[in-house]
Amino acid sequence: MLGAAALVSLVALASSAYATFSVARRSPGSDRMAEIQRYIRDGAWAFMIAEAKVMIVTMFVVAAILWAVFYWDVAVAFVIGSTLAMAAGFLGMNAATLANARTTEAAQRSIKDALRVAFSGGSVMGMAVAGLAVGGLVLVIVLFRREFDPNILHIHTKPIFGIPGADVNFIKAALIVSAYSAGASLVALFDRVGGGIYTKAADMAADLVGKVELKIPEDDPRNPATIADNVGDNVGDVGGLGADLLESFIGSVIASIVIALYVYVGRLNTDITALLARFGIGVQPNEAEFWWFLLMPVLFVTGGIVACLIAIAYIRFSRRETNMQGILMNGTRIGAILTAGFAALITWLSPFNWIPFFSAIMGIASGVGIGFVSEYYTSSRYKPTRELAKAYQSGPAIGVTEGMAVGMLSALWPCLIIAVATVLAYQM
Q: What is the CA angle 84-85-89, rounded to 5?
């Protein structure tokens, strides 16, 4: 199981590298386009490197505290999570600063060519995040496999800094994988908050100086603050998003693993015994059943990565020249259907009943549903945006009020979809 996850993560990273090289070998356009792109790229790298220096110091300080309070294993897992989250941000930012001018140059030929370049640049982040997240988790489990031995799993009790009464109860394996997720969270916090503050500061400076004082059009390269604004977009919305996405992606998987570990240790409890029976698991599962129980979430996301690779290939090589949004939506649907298929295959191969599959279907359906809601409230083909355009004809105040109302309403449906999916998955 771990071997399959490791192999797929390597394929995802190889796909990310291929997409980067396919973008890099394209022409960046005219000398002026290449010059502006170079300014943005150099600025983004300078910011990310300066931020990384601070993050590395913080990372090792926190790791030292974790070592002192808990174990060296926990500190190492924390460092692995932090390092991979930083790598995800750098890989995504690198691709984005390569793809910007090349997308503009491709758009001079056709919108389809521009989509291919832009999507290739964007897929670097997606595949890098998935590959690094799953590969890092596999690495942590392999490095500390002894702690995941079902024969020695138990609740540890450890005093914090030797303070009497300040005891912490935990399963060491759960603490190790949680530290991996916490490391990614630390980097996500730095990248998101630090990059976001820089982005907004540069954006406001560019607007105030350029548009208000000097009457220069927005995003005009003659305004140096515009370059800084674009640098901020890359470090905050690309680099920061990559670290944030990796943390969210792997955090959900690790949450399932932690729950599985505590359920296994407490399996003699009457309520937990009844819960396991719903999955077709006995009070004394064998080692194979234990590893299936522990790694099923990892296998599900591994199948999802394979499905996404196929969907990416469809979008890249689709021959349709019109309705680019339709191509993207079809790619999403293909990925969802294939993910469901892989979830069914994994559940069929497992020693359990079909409850995990139906729960996974709830998650897949909610993701597709939220995607449709986003499209419905932002696409020019549907009623909300058309009604908003009509509202602006009556004045900016009415338009802003209508826009806030539409935005608040659009946020309601994802909340309801997630709530319904959670309840249905729980009731399975």
A: 115
Q: Read off the pLDDT of each residue in 25-42 and give the average, rounded to a whole number.
A: 84
Distance CA 289, CA 145 (A): 16
The pLDDT of residue 321 is above 60 = no
Which residues 6+ apart lie within 8 Å of 248 measured at CB? none
Smallest Cα–Cα separation from 234: which of 338, 98, 421, 362?
Answer: 98
What's this model's pTM, rounded to 2 decimal places? Answer: 0.86
Of 426, 327, 318, 414, residue with least CA distance to 366: 414
Does residue 425 have a pLDDT over 90?
A: no
Residue 147 vs residues 121, 152, 252, 276, 420: alpha-carbon distances, Å? 39, 7, 21, 22, 36
Q: What is d(CA 305, CA 335) in angstroms, rounded to the nearest whole number?
A: 9
Binned at pLDDT 50, 70 and 90, residue 419 comes out as very high
Q: Distance of CA 10 to CAs 294, 296, 342, Å?
A: 22, 19, 18
Taking residue 363's Cβ as centre, other Cβ atoms within 10 Å add up to 19
Lowest mean pLDDT among 33-37, 143-147, 277-281, 356-360: 277-281
CA proximity to 74, closest of 186, 174, 152, 187 = 174
| Interval 301-313: pLDDT, tens | 999 999 999 988 8
Q: What is the DSSP string of 176-210?
A: HHHHHHHHHHHHHHIIIIIHHHHHHHHHHHHIIII
pLDDT at 249 exceeding the cut of 80: yes
Q: 226-236 b/e with 16+ CB inside 10 Å = b?
A: bbbbbbbbbbb
User: Which of the 8 DSSP states describes residue 166?
Assistant: -
Burial 406-420 (b: 16+ CB within 10 A, else e): beeeeeebeeebbee
Instruction: Look up residue 322 and give its DSSP letter.
Output: S
φ, ψ at 156 (rounded to 5°) = -90, 150
| Contact of 277 with 289, CB cutoff 8 Å | no
Cβ–Cβ under 8 Å, residues 410 and 373? yes
Could you tell me the sign of the dihedral formed by the alpha carbons of 237, 243, 246, 248, in that order? Answer: negative
